[in-house]
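task queued by scheduler; priority normal; single chain, no ligands, no partner chains; default sampling; output format set to C-alpha cells
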Amino acid sequence: MFSLKGIRLRWFAMVLAIIVIAVGVYLTFFQSKGFEKTTAEIVSVVERPGDFSDDDVQHDVTVKYTVNGTEYVQLLDSYSPFYKVGKTVDVLYDPTDPSVIHSGKGIAIYLIIAGGVVLAVALGSVILGKKKLKNLKETEAVGTDAVYPSPVLGEERELYFLTDLGTPKYGHRIEDANRNVLIEAKMTKYSLVTPFEFDFIDYVNNVTKPHLIGHEESTDWNSMLIDNHHTISFDGEDIWKHLKRNGIRVESSIGGGSGKLIGVNFAIYRDDAELARVESTSQYVHEDDAEAHIVARGIPAQGFYRIWTKEQNIELLFVTLLAFARTEASDASGGTRRALFNTLKGE
C-alpha cells in the first residue's frame, strides 16, 4: 500500500485539485457543447439509499419533454430541494439524439469551486512557507548556514529527552538528573499548512534561536523490501540531509533491558567521534518516575530517550533526537525497518 502525508500530501492535493477543476470545466463547458435548450416537466422525484451509508439519500428525478413532436421521459443528472412534481426546468438535449440530456447544473460548478479552494490553500501554504523561511534567513543563520559549536568533552552524564504530550503544540526538552531543563524546543506558532514556528532555548548559555519545523512527511510502501520513509523539514532543509551535512552518523539497533519491551537504541557520532548513546524509554524516563509507574516503565514511547554523553555542547544532539521524536524513523536515513531487516533505503 502506498500512502502520503505532510508536504507530499500537499503536492498530491494540488495535482488532484487541478484534475477536479479540469473535470468541472469539461462538464460545464464541453460536455454539452452543441446541445440545445428546451423545457421539461418533472414527473417524479424518488428517494433511494445512498452509496456510502444508510443515512445517505440519493434522489432520482425523472422529467418529460418534447422535441420535434416526440415525447421523451428521462432521468435528470441533477437534484435540488426545489424540484417538485409538476414544476418545469430547463434542460439541454443532444439534437442528434434527443434522449441524451443534461441539466446544465449538476456537480460541475461545485467541482470547480472545491478544486479552486484546495488549490488556493495549497499554493498559499507554499508561498507563506517560503516567506517565513526568507524572513528567518534574513535574521538568523539557519538551514545550510547553520553553525554548531565544536565538541567539548567532559565527564559522562546521563540526560533525558522528553516530549510534551496532550497538545497540538507539542515541544521537546533535554533535562539532567535533577530535572533542570538544559535545552528546549518550544512551539510558538501552530499551523496546519505551513511549517511550525519554534524557539530553541538554550538555558545553559542563555541563547534563544527561532526555527521552522515542517509537518511530518511520510512515504509508506508497506513492503518488506523497501523501507517506509519518514522525514521533516528543518529550516527548509530535509532533516536527515541537515544532520548528515553536519557530520552526524547514527547506528541504530534493536535492544531492551530488564523489565522493558524491545525498543530502538542509537549510537550517535559526529565526524566519527561518539557523541552519545541513546536508549528508547517510556515517557517516565527519570528513575523515580519509572518506579512510580511500573506498568508504563516497560513500554518504550516515541519521543522519550535516556542519553549518556560526554559532550557539553548538546545543541546538535538535541536536533538529532528531535528528528527521531517527530518522525517514525529508526535510522538517520528516515527509514523504519532497516535495523530489523537491513532493507533497501531510498535516500
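post-processing summary
- The mean pLDDT is 82.
- Residues 68 and 327 are 67 Å apart (CA to CA).
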